[in-house]
Amino acid sequence: MRKIILLAGFLALTALVAIAWAQTGEVKVVLAPFKVYSQESLPKIQETVRNTLAEQLKEEGVALIDPEETRKAMASLGISTLESEAQARSLGQRLHASSVIFGVFSKVGNHVSFDAKLVDVQGTKKTAVLTADDEGIENLAVPLKKIRQQAAVHLMSKGVIAEVNVRGTERIEAAAVKAAAKSAKGEALRTSQLRDDIKAIYGLGYFEEVQAEQSDGPGGKILTFVVKEKPSVTEVRVKGNKAIKEKDIMAAIQTKPYTVLQMNVVNDDVQRINKLYSEKAYHSVEVSHEITYPKDPRQALIIFNIKENKKMYINKIKFTGNKHYSGFRLRNEVMQTKEKMFLVSMITDRGVLQEDKLNTDVDRLTAFYHDNGYMDAKVNSPKIIREKDGFTIEIAIDEGSRYKISTFEITGDTLDDPKGKLKKEMESKPKGYFGREKLRKDVERVQKAFMNEGYAYVDVGPQVKRDADTHTTSINLVVRKGQKITVERVLISGNTKTRDQVIR
Prior knowledge:
With 504 residues, the protein is α/β, with parallel strands linked by helices. The chain is built from 14 helices and 21 strands.
């Protein structure tokens, strides 16, 4: 019995590959153009068949003679397609090939078929007959795959897989193992594919050992994947937790009783517990795991050991580059992340470092500056300095110049508004400071005004042009009102007690 074996430990993946069957040397093959029989014109079918089959044979490791060399050799013999095995041997000898594939492609109605031969140039092997058929010319790759499989068996000394079995599963369905592997019944048995299959099966995360065995059967090769399942988790415990309840920790982790032990999940759970504690200001927490097998080597007890240590808060938030707004205002009016305040921090999460919230604060600070005319303002990513008793956050700001509005126009399609009431409602006004939020609201006001007149699909495109020399910007709201929508009929359903006219 021949095997490919992949063994895996808990801490590292160690592959042991043992291949007992010998590899043959490079096989050079002539792939001659197939003769085409069809009642309809198929001008490119010969080239399509050749290219598709060539690609498939190359995947099997078959070295094909260059098609241009094949064409020239056939031209010198005065033929465009091969008619006999004798012609095939002559062509093969001229091109120094070991084998020649030639045949016929037929299309009758919607039915397509291939009848080919694989000829040994030296005549020491019996000519192999290759046949396949299918429905629909658009599915040529399917019958050609069968031709490839048949050819590979003869050319590469491979066997066809007659049966795929799985041995060693206890809790995991055999179907899951088969689904992960691409080696299947009817395919040629390929070493490279078996390696990939073993990796794919191991990648399911359920097995610590995977083997592939092959033996001879009456209909071809019998492929058996032999697996050894990882231990199951019988119990999960938490030790050392005081600040966070055990039920909350258990809800956060993914290692559960009665599941397969997966070390990558256990390691991820350590990080999940770390994050849980960090959200409570325990940034110095130490979390480790312990795995024992108290009753059965196939049943694992998982213990997460926690050393909480002291809480760590944000002691100071500093800004640099903020010339026009004080750090006090930015911290207290804009940011959600706050500095520690002794009594408040004891009963709330004030002063707790949460990096997601801190990153959101960068966006809030940027929006604050943009809304106050600083169109080019940039807020850099916060620098977190860890100290013995807490954290200091440093945020660098490049305010840039402050822009005023030079002109504000509404162009394009218009409404009947002789007194300019709509324009007066705008928050963005000449000589005022530019603000992105004000502009957004102005766009919404224009859209609403047009929609109230029946233009449900109105489009308002703001055009903002800035002048870096004068630190001014011009705003133009270009309106495309679209088609006016009218209501022809209002249908009401479900009103069993109230009449339609009352609702209308």
